[in-house]
Amino acid sequence: MAEEKLNLLADFPAISTKEWKEKIVTDLKGADFDKKLVWRTPEGFNVQPFYRQEDLKGLKTTVSAPGQFPYVRGTKGNTNEWAVRQNICACENSRKANKKALEILNKGITSLGFCLDSEKLNYRFIKNLLQDIDARAVVLNFTVCACKAPELAGILVRYFGRMGYDFKAVVGSINVDPMKNMLLKGKDLTREQVTEKLVATVNAAKRLVNYRVVGVNSVILNNSGAYCAQELAYALAWGADYMTMMTEAGVPNYLAARNIRFNMGIGGNYFMEIAKFRAARMLWAKIVEAYKAPAFTAALKEAAKMNVSAETSRFNMTIFDAYVNLLRTQTETMSAAIAGVDEITVTPFDITYERPTDFAERIARNQQLLLKEEAHFDKVVDPAAGSYYLENLTASIAAEAWKQFLAIQEQGGMFEMVKAGKVQEAVAANLKTRLGDVAKRKEVLLGSNQFPNFNETAAKKIKPNAGACSSICTCKDKKQNAASCGCGGACEKTAIPTLPVARAAEEFEQLRLETEGAKRQPVAFMLTIGNLAMRIARAQFSCNFLACAGYKVIDNNGFKTVKEGIKAARKAKADIIVLCSSDDEYATYAPEAWKELQNAKEMFIVAGAPACMEDLQKLGIQNFIHVRCNVLETLKALNAQLLKK
Predict the structure, then answer these.
(1) What is the mean pLDDT of residues 373-401?
(2) What are the structural domains of the chain?
(3) Does the pTM exceed 0.70?
């Protein structure tokens, strides 16, 4: 036997897709293949349970190499290096911000993001902010009021010139994005005002050849619950509108494209996010190509390389069980790194309840450094390439995003839709759907709507101004003085709808915080009886269910009789008694328990949705918890009753 050689082709004959599917259908034992195994994504397309080489045929994502148009496989050629970014609020004190910047530059940071107060902006402020920072060795990013951005660009040109820097050696961005302010603050700007801000900043920054001064901040859509394809479609339309505005105002096409930077969010769907960024580069390159008249020059082709700064999402971050945020941001960071983005910002895990601590910021930095120094993610270009699944996922997201992009164009483009409140309306509708899925546990948030930490409290750790100041600066939100700002009073107008901003866990957290603030923590007692397997399963389910509202839960090994269980529950001073047994046994145990409890002060709940539910309801039993429940609404109703006591 040892002398026999394995012949892969002969010993393992090729199996057709049809044969694979027939085998799967057989194993399903009559269950519908499409309903059981085909995933209908929130983005609007189907994902098959398996893919094969034949599924790559005809895909446009496989025809180019890294660094080659249309850049689906990356813009960087033979490296996957990305900048490790941390944001600093420089609104109050430039020297203090400078001190922090110098400190973190020695801890692995290669990109700095500064939020600036427009009223304090002048040459001395920037000089103090950048003192002892070599602008050739670090990416410098600035967020400031769009009205002040041209002035900032001029100051940077003067400062870098006086420092003797070669302008080609300094890399960074000024995040000018009037539509972001329209979406977040309801500022009613005209198309002419937006164009003026963009063109003025681009002209002021012409000498900063490696600075991108026009931002497309689709991260705010991600933080409002937008799905991958929706965020991507709006981001593309956003960028296309800015391209059109600038080129129609006389800015050369290559210069307009070269100045646009996409600040995108990273959601929690691991593979979907990888595919999103790959699809984004491909589609953006095609959009820029459309501005090629009279020719697709080398300069425009180079400018068609999408520059992406990615930021981990705040939408799925939680206050309770906050260390789980580390797991969320780590997988998100991995998605963006594998997808080949240019820069990543990891949101500190504690940002939902306090201004990030030094410890949280250190962990956020190290999450990226781990991927570089230990996992070597920066060494391999587009490792997703050739994966049957990911290539198909990339093509599917691209197709869906492009369909939505064309629909946006038919309605006048991104600016007109923002002006009319249609973007805000669409994102709000999507947010409502997602929050509904979270309420029903179709979308799971570990530690919040599923498997909570039973003993955790959070009210005392929540501090004012939590999450203040980031790449989207919310630290001051001052009304700019119309005269000093130069916007003609436009900064003070709030005539259009704003984008909804929410986290998925907020409503569950509010419930739990209400419970913490009550005079007495409700106690839920598991009356386990009968079938061993079913009572254990239902007790565990019920404990997790009720602990999501912050109730104290008491599980038990089992009781011989219903009366014995009720006696133990009363001894434990229970507010809720949950009957945990099998469906068949509920027909006997539930009426017996109800007879004992219907006029008592304890609330009675049956764990499950047994076949005899209607009969039990006729007796007066109204509370049932099971997998088809809207968990949030059920807990709200319980809170309304229990916290009155």
Answers:
(1) 96
(2) 83-382+410-449+485-492 (3.20.20.240), 520-642 (3.40.50.280)
(3) yes
